[in-house]
Amino acid sequence: SSGALWGGRFSGGPADALTALSRSTHFDWRLADVDLRGSVAHARVLHRAGLLDDDALATMVAALEELRSDVASGAFAPVPDDEDVHSALERGLIERAGADVGGRLRAGRSRNDQIATLIRMYLRDQARALAALALDVVDALVDQASAHPTAPMPGRTHLQHAQPVLLAHHLLAHAWPLLRDVERWVDWDRRAARSPYGSGALAGSSLGLDPAAVAADLGFDGPVENSIDGTASRDVVAEFAFVAAMAGVDLSRLAEDVILWATKEFGFVRLDDAYSTGSSIMPQKKNPDVAELARGKAGRLVGDLTGLLTTLKGLPLAYNRDLQEDKEPVFDQVDTLLVLLPAVSGMVATLTFDTERMAALAPQGFSLATDVAEWLVREGVPFRVAHEVAGACVRACEERGIELWDLSDDDLATISGHLTPGVRSVLTVEGSLASRSAVGGTAPVRVAEQVEAARRRSAEL
Ligand code: ARG
């Protein structure tokens, strides 16, 4: 009974080792629902082509719907002899509709065009779910940004103090990449919305079935243009996998900031108890496990993408059984992101910032030196000279263990005749922030607009 879909030309059954290797029901069973939806659509085009009479169509559709609810309830499940989800469901159909009617469904259809269609249906559904969860992370970041409209923090490059920025500006810098990941999924969906159904094994069908009708029935924009491409290509799957991997990488960069910020040394942020863990031996510990798992799971999300691309590399046209290996990587990505995204949005939404400490550290490390240089440029000094003068201020302060704003008017004048007391207007964090007021800058007025822009973008997607 094994190999129920292809026994005809074989004199004996498959070796147990082949059956074990070949079997995919333990991972492709999650496609059972889209498989049955596809089968109902296929039954309808068979009927329209005159290959199923009215009674047979009614029997077939009723049996498929019954099977669908039995799959949902768990009353029907694969057995060890079922090779894949398609074989198992054909067995279930024949059990319910009889061999005469049930045995007609496969006409004009191959598992090759079937699986290529189902993976698209499944991933299109999942992309919508994941995009919604990614937007929850975006919204949590935007809410935190709007709750801290003017709080400054040290902005860093090379992880060293660079220039003061608004906490809200920094948080939104994590929101925009995630918004782009969602845009990528939306854009990907246009390419995924082509149905390979009707491509058959590779060459199309001779039975007068209408691929456009099945495509429309299953929510696709239309059929694929080429039956070989439809059955053999998996770039649509790989592109989904890239977006999932990119989202994982974007989450891991946010996570790394949270991990650093939660250290004693930074002391920027306190994690909510509900989103942190303790140590089994050190009673005082509060660990950022959500963020660490986000960082760690980015590795497997990237691994899933590279594994899939490696499987596809060099495969000749058309279908090859290697393509069965396209599913586990993206299923793993889906499962990973479905648990990861809600944990990250919860963690972000419940962060408590020590805004006093962040404000106190914002001007440390001579992070206002660029403001001195740019003030001099506005006074007409060439930037090369301005850079030297501001650098000399830093050197003087370092030697004396003081900050830029501790330099007296005389000190300033001694360093350079250009340094009049007017420079003090930019020697405060507030002055520095307010001066960076071009579009995209960290001035509070611009960041307030940015919060609204991010909110609108999230609501549109
Ligand atoms: N389970 C296969 C897959 O995932 C589909 C079956 C195609 N098998 C075949 N011998 N043509 O790609």
From TrEMBL:
Domain Fumarate lyase N-terminal: 14-303
GO molecular function, one term: argininosuccinate lyase activity
CDD domains with a match to the protein in the record: Argininosuccinate_lyase
Gene3D superfamilies membership: Fumarase/aspartase (C-terminal domain) (1.10.40.30), Fumarase/aspartase (Central domain) (1.20.200.10), Fumarase/aspartase (N-terminal domain) (1.10.275.10)
EC code(s) of this entry: 4.3.2.1
Keywords, sorted A to Z: Amino-acid biosynthesis, Arginine biosynthesis, Cytoplasm, Lyase
Pfam families, per database record: ASL_C2, Lyase_1
Positions of the Argininosuccinate lyase C-terminal domain: 366-433
A GO term from the CC aspect: cytosol
GO BP field: L-arginine biosynthetic process via ornithine
Reactions the enzyme catalyzes: 2-(N(omega)-L-arginino)succinate = fumarate + L-arginine
InterPro entries from the UniProt entry: Arg_succ_lyase_C, Argininosuccinate_lyase, Fumarase/histidase_N, Fumarate_lyase_CS, Fumarate_lyase_fam, Fumarate_lyase_N, L-Aspartase-like
Subcellular location, record wording: Cytoplasm
Cleaved signal peptide residues: none
Pathway in which this enzyme or protein is active: Amino-acid biosynthesis; L-arginine biosynthesis; L-arginine from L-ornithine and carbamoyl phosphate: step 3/3
Family: Belongs to the lyase 1 family. Argininosuccinate lyase subfamily.
HAMAP family recorded: Arg_succ_lyase
NCBIfam families: argH
Protein name stated in the entry: Argininosuccinate lyase
The species this protein was found in: Cellulomonas carbonis T26
